[in-house]
Amino acid sequence: xxxxxxxxxxxxxxxxxxxxxxxxxxxxxxxxxxxxxxxxxxxxxxxxxxxxxxxxxxxxxxxxxxxxxxxxxxxxxxxxxxxxxxxxxxxxxxxxxxxxxxxxxxxxxxxxxxxxxxxxxxxxxxxxxxxxxxxxxxxxxxxxxxxxxxxxxxxxxxxxxxxxxxxxxxxxxxxxxxxxxxxxxxxxxxxxxxxxxxxxxxxxxxxxxxxxxxxxxxxxxxxxxxxxxxxxxxxxxxxxxxxxxxxxxxxxxxxxxxxxxxxxxxxxxxxxxxxxxxxxxxxxxxxxxxxxxxxxxxxxxxxxxxxxxxxxxxxxxxxxxxxxxxxxxxxxxxxxxxxxxxxxxxxxxxxxxxxxxxxxxxxxxxxxxxxxxxxxxxxxxxxxxxxxxxxxxxxxxxxxxxxxxxxxxxxxxxxxxxxxxxxxxxxxxxxxxxxxxxxxxxxxxxxxxxxxxxxxxxxxxxxxxxxxxxxxxxxx
Length: 476
Hints:
The protein is an alpha+beta fold and 476 residues long. It has 3 domains: 144 residues, no CATH class; 162 residues, no CATH class; 162 residues, no CATH class. Helix content is 59%, strand content 7%. It is built from 21 helices and 4 strands. A 4-stranded mixed sheet has the order 1-3-2-4, sandwiched between helices. The chain is elongated, with a radius of gyration of 27 Å.
């Protein structure tokens, strides 16, 4: 059953009032909308705030805001009121947050998300209302400016804040619920979502311990926000940059695998069994336990390409797969007397590249081998050595690191919901001479009317085994 706009808006307004009880000069305005309706919701919100002392500035903030599908803090506006003939002034801060209710399945999720953004709003408010902060006198619009590590640290604190204040209001099991959500998110491909920036799992035990200590205190409701802020900031100081980078690395690799079609069991097995980093393996076990997912056996994934392995290992496996691909197709072509097997596989590899699969890619070499095979056959010559030479010569033109870099760009586009057709990949290659061989191979596949298509993979619903090239090779 879908959430109702009125009930979501009411829950958010309750949180806004709760925050204002603690921070008298901060007002949080939650703008609730459905997928694809953010712009219209912003217009309505702007009309509602037309009487606000800083209405023009709020409208400017809304007009400048990037249109995002995810819920989040948009920014904040300072409204100044002169007092005593301008000798002093009073200011208030209005923070705007976007809530996409189609992202949630329960009001508990909505409230937790709203509290998460409330923490960011409070943090922004306190930074820019510090008397020692010169921006207080100069700025009308204030927005978050974080580098990657600062954003990860802020999101950790925001999740802790949301869990603590929810638990104080008798939201049973909120820490485990939040942990399970974050654990499943990091193993799932979802457009516009970046789980590597949400490291709450590493702070679950600390948050549970803090709540146990609070259980013995009689905390009045008006102090819930203040108490939750104190706990969040204390826990935030426990996890240094090294800890946050370890989470980021684990999650980035997990997302790469998820976007290439790996299932959750395979991702966890790769992290736990393949990674040489003990911290990454520990996080893998933590995610497995929290999400209640049993990793695949190492026997099931030992030949898979995985970002958890070293680049040297993956490059060796890449070259091994390339060699095996040629030998298999050469055998088939000699038996059939024609080169179509090389072309078919080249087309499939190019289509797989459009999903971000670079391991085992040798489409340009396969196309060169097909030409050499056909020329030799027409001349009545034995094609084996000539075909091999053409294949190996073309293979020297494409570097493994360049393929990896291109694949990462493709995954980035997919995560943003952007298309990754053969033509867009050609554009991604640009004027990079190291990718000329890739561009030419893609152009040949585009011109082939029999190239076929890969079955569509739906983001966020990937259940199949890892779709590495060696596993999806076809010899039909």
